[in-house]
Amino acid sequence: MRLTIRRPDDWHLHLRDGAALAAVLPHTAARFARAIVMPNLAPPVTTTAEAAAYRARILAALPPGAAFEPLMALYLTDRTTPADIDRARASGIVHGCKLYPAGATTHSAAGVTDIRRLDDTLARMAEAGMPLQVHGEVTAADVDIFDREARFIEAVLAPLVARLPRLRIVFEHITTRVAVDFVRGSHDGIAATITPQHLSLSRNALFAGGIRPHLYCLPILKTEPDRRALLEAAVSGHPRYFLGTDSAPHARRTKENACGCAGIYSAHAGIEFYAEAFEAAGALSQLEAFASHHGADFYGLPRNAGTITLVREPWTVPAGYPFGDDTLVPWRAGETLAWRLEGAAP
Ligand code: DOR
Ligand code: ZN
């Protein structure tokens, strides 16, 4: 069986830099026409000039003949000003600004300590039509890790939506039924990305037969009812849920570690994983809208002209990919996937 769909985009992706960038970029560029590239480098991408330089490094790292457009995002800090937003908007290369609550995840130490410090900056984003991409977790140490997303909605996101009704927000990598319901119940300027791992796995997978560091990501996997709510949302055809892999490569030694990093690498099969999840839900016919239409429409960008073709033919994911002087262990390493990318047409 073959499935040809309009070429998809990845609306949430970590590409890193240097040797890591060169190692992972071909996987994404083979499948996706565009991706929102997360700015959580060390140091973070906080200005339009830095975003332009990073964009040039990504373009230089593309394999010959690849057709891929990086869509840049700025990393908000306590010091991001309205003038920074004006420069980003004028550049034409910055498509959003990312809110990392300080301490929430990988390379978030420079993130925002109190969102109210950014009132003027966020107001300018609302005026300029610049989307805000949100890592939606509170960081207080006394909040249970499984409750951090729900608490963020109450404490930060709902008040923000009420304060700035014109601000366009992408609630990134949603993981709970509460988040699904919040987005559905909000106005048209509020959307969400959903990762393949949160569609396919619940938190039991983290401890299946022993602790599984390669399944540790943030926000952490949630319960089976949460997973089902996410899958229902993804296959529903609702235009404000769309694809964002959150593929987040880390070297093997930093994952298999007494204090392992958060992040699941999925770019090697970034569309195939969704095909599997949608097929399991009996909803393959909804994949194209979720992967190739809704995100572009929300961001006000044209849908892609080309196509990709997937074939239902088993293949085995490698145990690892070269990653600088280490190895990258991909999601489902050594396991068989049902769908394979056959090719892309421009
Ligand atoms: O699991 C994650 N990994 N979640 C994030 O928010 C960041 C990401 C990363 O950069 O590794
Ligand atoms: Zn991410």
Mean pLDDT: 97
What ligands can be seen in this structure? Answer: (4S)-2,6-dioxohexahydropyrimidine-4-carboxylic acid, zinc ion
- Structural domain tally: 1
Q: Provide the β-strand percentage band.
A: 15-25%
CATH classification, class level: Alpha Beta
Uncertain regions: pLDDT < 50 for 5+ in a row?
none
* Name of the CATH homologous superfamily: Metal-dependent hydrolases
Q: Tally of extended strands?
A: 13
Biggest sheet, strands in spatial order?
2-3-4-5-6-7-8-9
What are the secondary-structure elements, in order, as H or E? EEHEHEHEHEHEHEHHEHHHEEEE
- The number of helices is 11
Largest sheet: 8 strands, parallel
The CATH architecture: Alpha-Beta Barrel
Share in helix: 25-40%
Rg, rounded, reads: 19 Å
CATH topology: TIM Barrel
Structural class by sheet pairing and helices: alpha/beta
Distance between the termini: 22 Å
Backbone shape: globular
